[in-house]
Amino acid sequence: MNRIFLLILVSIFTVSTASAQTTFLKKLKKGEKQTVVFYGASAAINTSNRAWVDQLRTRLERRFPEKITFYNCSKSGIGSFWATENFKDSVLSRKPDLLIFGFSENDAVTRFNNAPWYSGKCAEYMVDNLRAQNPDATIVLYILSERPLGQSAETRPELAAFNASCREAAKKKGIILVDYSVEFNKIYDAGGEEALKPYQRDGILPTRKAAQEILVPMLWDAILGRDSAKK
């Protein structure tokens, strides 16, 4: 298999979508107000990590002024167990039209004693519950790095398997998957750990550089599709 074909495959599978234009975008273009909920762990809520969440919110509000209500219901130091137990109060109570969520980077931490399939099954549970409330909701599952560094690597020896279960869940449920690990792997393959460090604070959590160059552009394209070029 030649290198050009491999690069084409990477570009196709980095962001997989259920449709070319999301329901979220279609309703915004009709002038309907929409609610966005972010639901994740430290990567999405801690001040030093959440630049990508804040940047996405700013861009969406600039593009669709006074049309979007935005909630960040993420919580530091937790995984899918907490996420599923609190899904009704944290997410369903906000009645999201767009849910952006991901927990595999914490599910994989050994102290939580989870099996790799756990991330995917919990993701399916959350998708099913939101669809029961709102069948038209746009749902985005994200995966962070698959190259944790230092202590983060030691505490997540099976991270790849947890991420794989999320990929399978996204495929099974037909939701949008934004797999940041593909881009982080490319950086690592090109320059090793030293090249990757500027993108991963403490070995796995995203930096502002990662937000600007990778996370926000990929998420923006996934949500807005062909409209993404229109700022």
From TrEMBL:
InterPro entries: Ester_Hydrolysis_Enzymes, SGNH_hydro, SGNH_hydro_sf. SUPFAM superfamilies: SGNH hydrolase. Residues 44-207 form the SGNH hydrolase-type esterase domain. Gene3D superfamilies: SGNH hydrolase. This is GDSL-type esterase/lipase family protein. Pfam families: Lipase_GDSL_2 (PF13472). It comes from the Bacteria. Keywords: Signal. Residues 1-20 form the signal peptide.
